[in-house]
């Protein structure tokens, strides 16, 4: 590690003064241009290895959880907030919880759930029909986060949050506090919040209290439902019911784990999918030809229907799917991931000691000239076989928006279904334009990478 290249720092602080947490991924890109696909930095007294090459990123991701784990400091911060779920679980705990999550999000459950997703999408359409008259536009990110909260709560818990039709003070308002707080605390030099509560820390505590009260109410409803229907215990209908049943087995899941997994599912189902869709609205405004092709496909697949109302039809939305992939390539919600080595290990001929802090910058490869033709251009056709013959460079191993290996995101199918359902609906019914100047939209890394707020005007199509 000592022989690795990297930016020079200063005593005690290392490279900390050269890093802006909100754009850490961009800081790393500049360093990678200078020092290559593997280099070292120093975060205070802590040395770290940064990896931007796709093959090495794949190696790390595919050797979890045996050789690498999520950053222990992040785990400590998350647990301190009272969250113990599949996201920050490791080893045997992760394997057990992962099985329950995977069952809840498998294709058969999604097919059964699809009519409910249609109803939620229709609610969103009705809401947007009302807001389309607003000349000031709508904060599209907030709208999409409410949609994903409603979908996740219905699917995973059998519970109707109905945040789409609420005007203020929704559970979503409190959920969006969590990820930025985790990111800020992971990047803090010292755990100051244990001694001094700043306004942001007080807001976090309040939000956690509201969220936990809400989650406990949902859990109590599930327990009551299961107690009244013994047959349901043999065939749980959703993720939460399966967790409650597991809590009564010989190797029980604790109530803390139930709450932690309920919260984890809500957080994972809200931010990531909503932020990706928000970026897509941004690209739809920048590229009118892309929006037109999306509308043509929506018209063809949906016919006279205002939303996708048949599960099989969503698989026909190939161009819209390509738009989603291209948006995730350029604006992934997880451009940076943090890990620790669980043993002494060799990575690219570098001896990496156990517990070394490892940073993966996955976005660098996805927008690199080595891996994609015209990488800085938004070209959905590159994801359609034969759709972009002039762009032959297309390395999908450099594209990991849902991770890779054993801990590949189990919510992939749900996320894609939600995004195609919403995008087909908006393309069928509206023209999308941004009111905010696109040049003013910034990337903000706060655990997930999100766009800064911008307003969109939805004009009803004739």
Could you please describe the fold and organization of this structure?
The protein is an alpha+beta fold and 462 residues long. It folds into two domains: 1-81 and 335-366, Uridine Diphospho-n-acetylenolpyruvylglucosamine Reductase, domain 2 (2-Layer Sandwich), CATH 3.30.43.20; 82-331 and 401-460, Cytochrome P450 (Cytochrome p450, Orthogonal Bundle), CATH 1.10.630.10. 49% of the residues lie in helices and 11% in strands.
Q: What percentage of the residues does DSSP assign to strands (E)?
A: 5-15%
Radius of gyration: 22 Å
Specify the CATH class of the largest domain. Answer: Mainly Alpha
CATH architecture name of the largest domain: Orthogonal Bundle
Mean pLDDT over the full residue set: 90
Question: What number of domains?
Answer: 2
* Uncertain runs: none
> What fraction, in percent, of the residue positions are helical?
40-55%
Q: What's the name of the CATH homologous superfamily of the largest domain?
A: Cytochrome P450
